[in-house]
Amino acid sequence: MSSPAIPKTFSLYLDVVRFGAACLVYLYHSNQRWLVEPILPASQLGHSSVIVFFVLSGYVITYVTATKERDWASFTASRLSRVYSVALPALVLTVVLDSIGRQLLPDVYSGYPFDRFLPRIAGSLLMLNEAWFVSITSFSNVPYWSICYEFWYYVAFGALVFLPRRKAWLVIAALALLLGPKLLLLAPVWAMGVVLYRWQRLADISLRTAWVLVVGTVIGIACYLQLDVEHRAGAVFEALVGKTRFIEFTFSRFFLGDYLLGLLVMLHFAGMRKVAPVVGQVLVVCERPIRLLAAYTFTLYLLHQPLFLFWGSVLRLDNKGYTAWLLTTLLVAASVGLIGAVTENRRRGLTAWIRRRLTGSRDHSYSV
C-alpha cells in the first residue's frame, strides 16, 4: 500500500502553524521588562507552542520516512544535516553574541550562565543537555532544550523503522537508560504525530466529522489556555513528587497538561487535513511567502533568544513603549534571514556529504 501524500493545502497550513508557533515562542522569550515595559499579547504561549512543534515533528518525520527517506542512510543524513546545519552555527553565534552583549549591558545577562564552557558546549553538541535530572542551559539559548529532546526522538523512531524489531527495542531501552525520565515523559506527545500519519481511521473521517474536530479542538485549545490547564496539571504533579523534584523535571514538569494539549493538536490536524483542500485556496495564493517564511522557522526558533538579547543590548532604548521591542525584533528578523540563507543553502550539500560518508558511495546526485 502506498504511503498517503500530504495535500498541498494542508502542507501549507502546517507551514503557517510552524512559523506561527516559532513567533509565539519568540514573543514568550522577548516579553522582558528591560526590553518592553507593557506585557506583550499572547506572550504566555511559549511552552504550548513547543508542544505543537512536537506533534508536528512526529507527523513530518513519519511522512518523510514513508515517502523520501526510505533507507537508514538517507534518514540519518537528512536528520543530522537538518539539526546540525542550524545547531552548530547557533552554538557558535550564541557564545559570540553573549560575550559581546555582556560587555554592553551586563544586567540583561545576569540570569543566563556563561561558565563551564566544556560541559555546556559538549552537552549541546551531543544533545545531552537534558539527560536525567541534569539541565545544562546552552548559555543564553534557552530554547535549545527542545532540539535535545527531538534529536533523540528521531534516533528512537529511526531504530523502530530501520532495525529489526528486537534490536530496535534494545536500542530504545539503551536510550531510556542514557536519557532518563524527562525525555521519556514527552515522547508520547511526539508520538501523537506518528499516530496522526499512520492511523488510517483518522485519515478516513468524513468531511462533517473533520469540521467537528476542527471547531471542537479550537474551542478545546481556547479553554485549555483560558483555564491555564498547563499550570493546574503541573500543580498536581508537584503535589505528587514534591517541589524539589518537580523543579528538576524542568521542561517536562507540565507533561500531564501537555498530553491533553498534544491530543487536541493531533485531532485538530486530523480535521484540517480533510478540511484544508476545501477552504485552503487562499493558502495556495500565498504559497511563496508561506514557504519562504517556513524555511526559516528552525533558524528563528534556535537563534531568536541570543539575537534579541544581543540587539537589545546594542540598542539600549527606552522600554516604556513598544519602540525598543519592535526595532529589536526587526533586527532579529534581518539576522535570521541572513543566517538562514547560509544554513538552508548549505543543508543539501551537507546531507549528500554525510550520506556518502555513511555508505561509501560516490553518488553526488542525492538531495532532499
Please, could you describe this protein's structure?
- This protein is an all-alpha fold.
- It has one domain (8-204, 296-359).
- The chain has 16 helices and no strands.
- The protein has helices at residues 8-30, 46-67, 72-104, 117-126, 145-162, 165-179, 181-198, 200-203, 207-226, 229-241, 243-248, 255-279, 281-285, 287-295, 297-315, 323-359.
- Helix 5 packs antiparallel against helix 6, helix 7 runs parallel beside helix 12 and helix 9 (207-226) runs antiparallel to helix 12 (255-279).
- The radius of gyration is 21 Å and the shape is globular.
Structure summary:
This protein has 368 residues and is an all-alpha fold. It is 75% helix and 0% strand.
Broad structural category: mainly alpha
Query: What is Rg?
Result: 21 Å
Q: Sketch the major β-sheet.
A: none
Summed up, the helix count is 16
Unreliable segments of 5+ consecutive residues = 363-368
Mean pLDDT: 92
Strand content: under 5%
Number of domains: 1
